[in-house]
Amino acid sequence: MRRWLIGALASLAVLAAAPSAPIAAQQATPAGNWLTYQHDAARSGQADGSFPNPASASMLWESPQLDGLVYAQPLLTGGRVFVATENNTVYALDAASGSPVWSQHLGDPVPRSTLPCGNIDPTGITSTPVIDPQAGILYAVDYLNQPQPHHELVSLDLASGNVEFHQPLDPPAGSVLAHQQRAALVLANGTVYVPFGGLFGDCGDYHGWLLGASPADGSPRGVYQVPTHREGAIWAAPAAGPNGDLYVATGNGDSSGEFDMANAVVRLSADVQQVDYYAPSDWAQLSQRDADVGSTGPTLLDNNLILQVGKRGQGYLLAADHLGQIGGELYSDSLCSGAYGEAGHTGSTAYVPCRNGLVAVQVQGQSFSVLWHGPQFNAGAPVLTETAIWTLDDSSATLYALNPQDGSVLWQAPTQPVSNPPHFLTPAAANGHLFYSRGTTIVAVGTSS
After folding, report:
1. Those residues with Cβ within 8 angstroms of residue 282's Cβ, 6 or more apart along the chain or in another chain
2. CB atoms < 10 A from the CB of 293, how many?
3. What pLDDT sits at residue 49?
């Protein structure tokens, strides 16, 4: 693992010298595709194309039982739905019927009994993969039990599911057993970026990390460690800004004195070097309360502002090009009882997934206000279409369509609640249909005509 770090540091000069496509071109998502968590590298959650009026929506199909729980958001391209399971299997499903086209099992996952804490059993592929449609490749990170527990970056051919490469990819320090690769991958700057945090329970020797890897062979492209003594996880998905910089949010650390970059929003360069940061003045108290600022990813609004909302539901408005360091927010106010996952956003409006319902937030100037508060259920990260805001109830895996004007319910999926579904489920949308996990199956919603 430490050889990985040496190689990563040596490769920074190569990355700096290598030409890369503009970030805007890499973020562009062809119509009808959903290639990465929350649609694009800015994590907008905005779907392309036309979608049915919720009044005419219905369930179109439910897939056969897959071989493990699906925590990851489905991805879509070429008329197929790509799904990853905790049994380390990637499936390609026919988007019209839900029938499997191919599946690729990558190896045995890691049982919960092997780990010092956690709440997933077993752990295989937890994070949402990312697709490069030009290369015809899907990138995923699995967690393998043999010959000893370790993570790998895997490249799969979209057409056949064949493995193009698999490259060991673990943080170069700390305990492999204490690290979890939960947050979604991002493809930007000609690099696959992979975030790491810890397990549920915050046990063991772990840090937050962001590792960069070559999409050609998985070789290292850079390493960022959250400089805590311990903890400081990157729980939520990194977002890529228009100039290629990356934004991550961190969780609690174990320091109560010297600032350790816990409970922060961190801006990183393409080669994952720290450029800027923000943390609230009470960062140490938040760490003591396990009230992570980084329970959601940074929301990159179109007006060069960032909205960050954490576990206690406090919203922080930041300038994207000058985050403000400690206590330097533009504005802050309470929004809800706690937020998890990723806010959908369009223009200067964000839709924040809160434990007590989805909240629509309007940013005006250097402040924000609540437009509406949706029904009182545990809302997941939303998908935005021209007809509705779609979100899942995290406690039952039930899909809802909410009115963009006032948050009222326009439609509710006619399905039985799922007992103990995977946490933080998020639908995906393409070609007029929505697709989401109900645990070990995938459901499609749309109109039959």
Report:
1. none
2. 27
3. 87
For 318, residues 6+ apart whose C-beta sits below 8 A from its C-beta are 265, 278, 305, 306, 307, 308, 324, 328, 329, 330
What are residue 319's DSSP bridge partners?
305, 322
**Distance, CA of 362 to CA of 164 (rounded, Å):** 44
Six token digits for residue 326: 């400690």
The DSSP result for 117-164, as a single string, is S-S-SSBS--S--EEETTTTEEEEEEEE-SSS-EEEEEEEETTT--EE
- Can you say whether residue 274 is alpha, beta or left, with left for phi > 0 and alpha for psi between -120 and 50 degrees? beta
Q: How far is CA 72 from CA 38, 68, 142, 162, in A?
A: 11, 11, 12, 20
- C-alpha distances out from residue 435 to 8, 46, 50, 98, 310, Å: 37, 14, 15, 10, 27
Predicted model pTM: 0.93
Which two tokens mark 42? 């800015």
Task: Mention every residue, 6+ apart, whose C-beta is less than 8 A from residue 17.
Answer: none
- Stretches where the chain sits below pLDDT 50 are 1-27
Scanning the structure block, which residue is given the tokens 């000893």?
A: 148
- What is residue 29's DSSP assignment? -
Q: Are 243 and 33 in contact (CB under 8 A)?
A: no
Distance of alpha carbon 130 from the chain centroid: 10
DSSP-H helix ranges across 268-377? 283-288
Question: For position 29, what pLDDT does the model report?
Answer: 55
Contacts of 433 (CB under 8 A, 6+ apart): 51, 60, 95, 444, 445, 446
The CATH homologous superfamily of the domain defined by 2-446 = Quinoprotein alcohol dehydrogenase-like superfamily (2.140.10.10)
pLDDT digits 0-9 by tens, 341-379: 999 999 999 999 999 999 999 999 999 999 999 999 999
Show the tokens assigned to 113: 């009994």
CA distance linking residue 225 with residue 236, whole number of Å = 15
| Tokens representing residue 352 in the block | 């924040």
CB 262 within 8 A of CB 248: no
Q: Which residues pair with 79 in a beta bridge?
A: none
Separation CA 436–CA 425 (nearest Å): 8
Query: Could you tell me which residues are beta bridge partners of residue 368?
Result: 363
